[in-house]
Amino acid sequence: MGANEEAEIDRLPIDLLAHIFLLVSSFTDLAQASSVCRKWKQGVKQSLARRQTLSFAGWKMDDDSTARLVRHAYSLKELDISRSRWGCQITDHGLYEISLAKCVSNLTSISLWGIAGITDKGVVQLISRAISLQHLNIGGTFITDESLFGIADSCPHLKTIVLWSCRHVTETGLLVLVNRCRKLESINVWGTRVTVDCFIGLLTISPALQIIPRASMLPVA
Length: 221
Hints:
Elements: H1 2-10, H2 14-22, H3 27-34, H4 38-50, E1 53-55, H5 63-72, E2 78-80, H6 92-99, E3 109-111, H7 120-127, E4 135-137, H8 145-154, E5 160-162, H9 171-180, E6 186-188, H10 196-205, E7 210-212
Parallel strand pairs: 1-2, 2-3, 3-4, 4-5, 5-6, 6-7
Helix pairs in contact: 2-4, 3-4, 5-6, 6-7, 7-8, 8-9, 9-10
Protein backbone atom coordinates (compact mmCIF):
# COMPACT_ATOMS: atom_id res chain seq x y z
CA MET A 1 0.00 0.00 0.00
CA GLY A 2 2.84 2.35 0.83
CA ALA A 3 4.42 1.61 -2.54
CA ASN A 4 1.16 2.44 -4.32
CA GLU A 5 0.85 5.74 -2.44
CA GLU A 6 4.40 6.59 -3.37
CA ALA A 7 3.63 5.79 -7.00
CA GLU A 8 0.60 8.11 -6.93
CA ILE A 9 2.73 10.95 -5.55
CA ASP A 10 5.38 10.30 -8.15
CA ARG A 11 2.79 10.75 -10.89
CA LEU A 12 1.95 14.31 -9.82
CA PRO A 13 3.38 16.77 -12.37
CA ILE A 14 5.92 19.25 -11.05
CA ASP A 15 3.65 22.17 -12.00
CA LEU A 16 0.93 20.81 -9.70
CA LEU A 17 3.42 20.23 -6.91
CA ALA A 18 4.67 23.80 -7.33
CA HIS A 19 1.09 25.10 -7.09
CA ILE A 20 0.54 23.13 -3.89
CA PHE A 21 3.80 24.33 -2.35
CA LEU A 22 2.87 27.90 -3.32
CA LEU A 23 0.08 27.65 -0.72
CA VAL A 24 2.48 26.61 2.05
CA SER A 25 3.49 29.55 4.27
CA SER A 26 5.77 27.62 6.65
CA PHE A 27 9.40 27.77 5.56
CA THR A 28 10.11 24.83 7.85
CA ASP A 29 7.54 22.75 5.98
CA LEU A 30 8.98 23.81 2.63
CA ALA A 31 12.46 22.82 3.76
CA GLN A 32 11.16 19.40 4.83
CA ALA A 33 9.27 18.95 1.56
CA SER A 34 12.38 19.87 -0.37
CA SER A 35 14.27 17.01 1.28
CA VAL A 36 11.71 14.33 0.39
CA CYS A 37 12.98 13.66 -3.12
CA ARG A 38 14.44 15.36 -6.16
CA LYS A 39 11.02 15.97 -7.71
CA TRP A 40 9.66 17.63 -4.58
CA LYS A 41 12.79 19.75 -4.32
CA GLN A 42 12.20 20.95 -7.86
CA GLY A 43 8.56 21.64 -7.03
CA VAL A 44 9.55 23.76 -4.03
CA LYS A 45 12.01 25.72 -6.20
CA GLN A 46 9.35 26.36 -8.81
CA SER A 47 6.87 27.49 -6.15
CA LEU A 48 9.42 30.00 -4.84
CA ALA A 49 10.07 31.23 -8.37
CA ARG A 50 6.35 32.06 -8.73
CA ARG A 51 5.96 33.95 -5.44
CA GLN A 52 5.46 37.69 -5.69
CA THR A 53 5.56 38.20 -1.92
CA LEU A 54 7.80 36.77 0.78
CA SER A 55 7.36 37.57 4.46
CA PHE A 56 9.74 36.25 7.09
CA ALA A 57 7.99 38.16 9.89
CA GLY A 58 7.39 35.74 12.76
CA TRP A 59 10.12 33.35 11.65
CA LYS A 60 13.58 32.89 13.09
CA MET A 61 15.73 33.43 10.02
CA ASP A 62 19.46 33.83 9.53
CA ASP A 63 21.46 35.45 6.76
CA ASP A 64 22.14 32.37 4.65
CA SER A 65 18.68 30.78 4.76
CA THR A 66 16.95 34.07 4.00
CA ALA A 67 19.23 34.91 1.08
CA ARG A 68 18.91 31.39 -0.32
CA LEU A 69 15.11 31.64 -0.43
CA VAL A 70 15.14 35.12 -1.94
CA ARG A 71 17.56 34.02 -4.68
CA HIS A 72 15.02 31.43 -5.85
CA ALA A 73 12.11 33.92 -5.83
CA TYR A 74 12.60 35.25 -9.36
CA SER A 75 9.15 36.91 -9.57
CA LEU A 76 9.35 38.59 -6.18
CA LYS A 77 7.85 42.07 -5.82
CA GLU A 78 7.41 42.45 -2.04
CA LEU A 79 9.97 41.40 0.58
CA ASP A 80 9.34 41.58 4.33
CA ILE A 81 12.18 40.61 6.66
CA SER A 82 10.97 42.59 9.64
CA ARG A 83 12.09 41.68 13.13
CA SER A 84 10.35 38.54 14.35
CA ARG A 85 9.21 37.71 17.84
CA TRP A 86 11.86 34.97 17.92
CA GLY A 87 14.69 37.38 17.24
CA CYS A 88 15.76 38.14 13.70
CA GLN A 89 19.37 37.22 12.97
CA ILE A 90 19.70 39.21 9.75
CA THR A 91 22.88 41.29 9.51
CA ASP A 92 24.64 43.42 6.90
CA HIS A 93 26.07 40.20 5.45
CA GLY A 94 22.54 38.95 4.86
CA LEU A 95 21.50 42.17 3.15
CA TYR A 96 24.57 41.92 0.94
CA GLU A 97 23.71 38.34 -0.05
CA ILE A 98 20.08 39.31 -0.69
CA SER A 99 21.21 42.24 -2.85
CA LEU A 100 22.81 39.76 -5.27
CA ALA A 101 19.45 38.10 -6.03
CA LYS A 102 18.10 38.75 -9.52
CA CYS A 103 14.69 39.78 -8.19
CA VAL A 104 15.99 42.77 -6.19
CA SER A 105 15.88 45.17 -9.14
CA ASN A 106 12.14 44.40 -9.52
CA LEU A 107 11.17 44.77 -5.86
CA THR A 108 8.52 47.43 -5.25
CA SER A 109 8.28 46.98 -1.47
CA ILE A 110 10.88 46.19 1.21
CA SER A 111 10.42 46.10 4.98
CA LEU A 112 13.42 45.92 7.30
CA TRP A 113 11.42 47.10 10.30
CA GLY A 114 13.08 46.72 13.69
CA ILE A 115 16.16 44.76 12.56
CA ALA A 116 18.78 45.80 15.10
CA GLY A 117 21.68 43.96 13.46
CA ILE A 118 21.86 46.04 10.28
CA THR A 119 23.71 49.28 9.61
CA ASP A 120 23.96 51.84 6.82
CA LYS A 121 26.47 49.60 5.02
CA GLY A 122 24.00 46.77 4.50
CA VAL A 123 21.03 49.02 3.77
CA VAL A 124 22.90 51.03 1.13
CA GLN A 125 24.13 47.83 -0.53
CA LEU A 126 20.60 46.43 -0.80
CA ILE A 127 18.96 49.68 -1.80
CA SER A 128 21.55 50.39 -4.49
CA ARG A 129 20.05 47.56 -6.56
CA ALA A 130 16.38 48.12 -5.64
CA ILE A 131 15.84 50.59 -8.48
CA SER A 132 12.07 49.88 -8.76
CA LEU A 133 11.37 50.42 -5.07
CA GLN A 134 8.16 52.29 -4.20
CA HIS A 135 7.61 51.44 -0.53
CA LEU A 136 10.30 51.13 2.15
CA ASN A 137 10.01 50.51 5.89
CA ILE A 138 13.26 50.87 7.84
CA GLY A 139 11.66 52.04 11.06
CA GLY A 140 13.13 50.93 14.37
CA THR A 141 16.66 50.56 12.99
CA PHE A 142 19.87 52.45 13.69
CA ILE A 143 20.33 53.90 10.22
CA THR A 144 21.72 57.40 9.72
CA ASP A 145 21.68 59.99 6.95
CA GLU A 146 24.05 57.75 4.98
CA SER A 147 21.16 55.39 4.25
CA LEU A 148 18.91 58.28 3.27
CA PHE A 149 21.57 59.52 0.82
CA GLY A 150 21.74 56.03 -0.68
CA ILE A 151 17.96 55.85 -1.00
CA ALA A 152 17.88 59.29 -2.61
CA ASP A 153 20.47 58.18 -5.17
CA SER A 154 18.95 54.80 -6.03
CA CYS A 155 15.16 54.97 -5.60
CA PRO A 156 13.63 57.56 -7.96
CA HIS A 157 10.22 55.83 -7.82
CA LEU A 158 9.90 55.84 -4.02
CA LYS A 159 6.38 56.76 -2.84
CA THR A 160 6.36 55.95 0.88
CA ILE A 161 9.02 55.55 3.54
CA VAL A 162 8.75 54.68 7.24
CA LEU A 163 11.50 56.08 9.46
CA TRP A 164 9.68 55.45 12.73
CA SER A 165 12.06 55.91 15.67
CA CYS A 166 15.14 56.27 13.46
CA ARG A 167 16.74 58.60 15.96
CA HIS A 168 20.02 59.01 14.09
CA VAL A 169 18.60 60.59 10.94
CA THR A 170 18.83 64.37 10.74
CA GLU A 171 17.29 67.26 8.87
CA THR A 172 20.10 67.09 6.30
CA GLY A 173 19.27 63.51 5.27
CA LEU A 174 15.52 64.14 5.12
CA LEU A 175 15.88 67.25 2.98
CA VAL A 176 18.13 65.42 0.50
CA LEU A 177 15.70 62.49 0.38
CA VAL A 178 12.61 64.60 -0.30
CA ASN A 179 14.46 66.82 -2.76
CA ARG A 180 15.63 63.90 -4.90
CA CYS A 181 12.71 61.46 -4.55
CA ARG A 182 10.17 63.61 -6.35
CA LYS A 183 7.46 60.92 -6.35
CA LEU A 184 7.49 60.63 -2.55
CA GLU A 185 3.93 60.87 -1.19
CA SER A 186 4.28 59.92 2.47
CA ILE A 187 7.01 59.92 5.10
CA ASN A 188 6.67 58.60 8.65
CA VAL A 189 9.01 60.39 11.06
CA TRP A 190 7.41 59.43 14.38
CA GLY A 191 10.02 59.23 17.11
CA THR A 192 12.80 60.96 15.20
CA ARG A 193 14.66 63.94 16.64
CA VAL A 194 14.02 66.35 13.78
CA THR A 195 12.46 69.72 14.53
CA VAL A 196 9.28 71.38 13.35
CA ASP A 197 11.40 73.66 11.18
CA CYS A 198 12.57 70.57 9.32
CA PHE A 199 8.97 69.53 8.61
CA ILE A 200 8.27 73.00 7.26
CA GLY A 201 11.34 72.69 5.05
CA LEU A 202 10.13 69.35 3.69
CA LEU A 203 6.74 70.83 2.84
CA THR A 204 8.44 73.74 1.13
CA ILE A 205 10.14 71.27 -1.20
CA SER A 206 7.03 69.08 -1.64
CA PRO A 207 3.79 70.79 -0.53
CA ALA A 208 1.67 67.67 -1.15
CA LEU A 209 3.90 65.44 1.01
CA GLN A 210 2.06 63.62 3.80
CA ILE A 211 4.14 63.80 6.94
CA ILE A 212 3.34 61.46 9.82
CA PRO A 213 2.71 62.92 12.37
CA ARG A 214 0.30 64.87 10.22
CA ALA A 215 1.52 68.19 8.95
CA SER A 216 -1.77 69.72 10.13
CA MET A 217 -0.64 69.01 13.71
CA LEU A 218 2.45 71.18 13.31
CA PRO A 219 2.32 74.70 14.73
CA VAL A 220 2.05 77.48 12.19
CA ALA A 221 5.26 79.50 11.90
